[in-house]
Specification:
Layout (H helix, E strand, L loop, with lengths): L9 H6 L13 H17 L4 E5 L2 H7 L11 E5 L5 E5 L3 H7 L5 E5 L6 H11 L3 E4 L5 H10 L4 E4 L1 H8 L4 H23 L7 H15 L4 E8 L20 E10 L2 E2 L2 E6 L5 H19 L8 H13 L16 E3 L6 E5 L12 E4 L3 E3 L3 E3 L3 E5 L4 E3 L13
Parallel strand pairs: 1-5, 3-4, 5-6
Antiparallel strand pairs: 1-2, 2-3, 7-8, 8-9, 8-10, 11-12, 13-16, 14-15, 16-17
Helix pairs in contact: 2-7, 5-6, 8-9, 10-11
């Protein structure tokens, strides 16, 4: 039996968990104000007069408001000079005041009113002629604003939003480090509860409860796959039952004050056969090659290329052909599980200190099994630094 797999149960593992003893500090008001200043610098560089940020990760990033997007317009308009303006439904005012972490003028709308008019009025008062729009904003909301904004030009705000969010501060790195450490501990304990016949649903339930026991907001997502299902990067519909000799793939994460973890472990329930072992070791080497390729100033795509070279030397691929790597090597991460920039061919964004990425060059053997090892790193002045240490071997995946 692979070391560290099985031998316990969910009740025993949950009873042994307590809230994280060294929680990372929250983002301060001063840091949020610095983010607004940085956004204004990027607005000037991109010749725009205001930035419109919708509910979601970016509103939380700039203003501390942790609301998800919905059909109701909740947004922050940031001018190049002066305080932000937050547009919000009237009935949400109390909650907004409790969440808002920066000084802002609040403009309210009732359910039978058109909130886009509030944005248009503010733009006219500011004399704004070019508005950068949050790339995550729903198309219909953008079009509603465009129709009432007169001669104001609406442009893509990615350069500003991503330009701010892609470079993490030391406080952000600490929150992400905690989230990832928590998830790795949950991964380790999930492996211990495995037994023949256990269902993927039981494992997912344990993972969510374990994350909550450590103080996270539950599991932000959870993929549990056994056997043939692992050959499909995000699994198959229906229930999975664990059998001796199955490949086990668990991909999960949690949030700490909005910041995400996302870690995947793949191992064998029982004893690895020769093919499983060979593919696992190629995957391990590809993940390390991607990490070693990280260098400030190099394009993001160079990391993806480094992983693929390992696979191609082993006779896999090339490109996205199977058996091989069917998707990009990694994604940015922070307040969103997947965010720009990405480690993929064609992504020329230069790597810069403070950027954070997943490293997961999955190998798929069609209709048989897949192996994904996923850990995250942040770019430093000299290369890359892991948030969590990669799995050391197929025989002892947790050391």
């Amino acid at each position: 039996m692979t070391r560290g797999i099985g031998g316990s149960n969910a009740a025993a593992q949950l009873a042994d968990l307590a809230r994280w003893s060294t929680p990372a500090a929250p983002i301060t008001r001063e840091e949020r104000l610095a983010r607004l200043d940085r956004a204004r610098e990027l607005m000037a560089a991109n010749a725009v007069d205001a930035l419109l940020v919708c509910a979601g990760g970016s509103l939380r990033y700039f203003a501390g408001v942790p609301w998800g997007a919905s059909e109701r317009l909740v947004a922050m308009l940031l001018p190049r000079e002066g305080n932000p303006i937050v547009v919000c439904p009237t009935f949400e005012l109390g909650t907004l005041r409790a969440d808002l972490a920066v000084d802002a003028e609040v403009r309210l709308w009732e359910e039978d009113e058109n909130p886009s008019l509030l944005i248009a009025d503010a733009l006219r008062q500011l004399g704004a002629m070019r508005l950068a729009v949050d790339p995550a904003m729903a198309f219909t909301m953008v079009e509603h604003i465009r129709k009432v904004a007169g001669s104001v030009q609406l442009v893509d705000g990615s350069a500003i939003v991503d330009g701010c969010r892609s470079i993490k501060s030391s406080a952000e790195l600490a929150l992400m480090r905690q989230a990832k450490a928590m998830t790795l501990e949950v991964q380790r304990r999930a492996a211990l509860i495995l037994r023949e016949g256990i269902t993927a649903t039981e494992v997912r339930r344990f993972i969510d409860e374990a994350h909550r026991a450590l103080g996270a907001s539950g599991s932000s997502f959870c993929i549990v796959q056994f056997g043939r299902s692992t050959a499909f990067p995000h699994g198959l519909p229906g229930e999975c039952f664990l059998r001796e000799g199955d490949v086990v793939l668990i991909d999960t994460g949690c949030t700490v004050q909005g910041y995400n973890s996302d870690i995947t472990r793949t191992y064998i329930y029982g004893h690895a056969n020769d093919e499983q072992r060979r593919i696992w070791e190629i995957e391990h080497a590809a993940q390390q090659a991607a990490f070693d390729a990280v260098s400030p100033g190099a394009p993001c795509e160079s990391v993806d290329a480094a992983a693929r070279k390992v696979l191609e030397r082993a006779g896999l691929g090339p490109d996205y052909k199977l058996p091989g790597l069917p998707h990009r090597t990694g994604h940015g991460i922070g307040l969103s599980v997947h965010e720009a920039p990405y480690l993929v061919r064609g992504e020329r964004t230069p790597l810069a200190p403070g950027m954070c990425f997943s490293n997961e060059p999955m190998i798929v053997v069609p209709d048989r099994f897949g192996v994904r090892l996923e850990d995250h790193f942040h770019v430093t002045e000299h290369g890359a630094q892991w948030f969590t240490q990669p799995s050391p071997s197929i025989d002892a995946p947790f050391g």
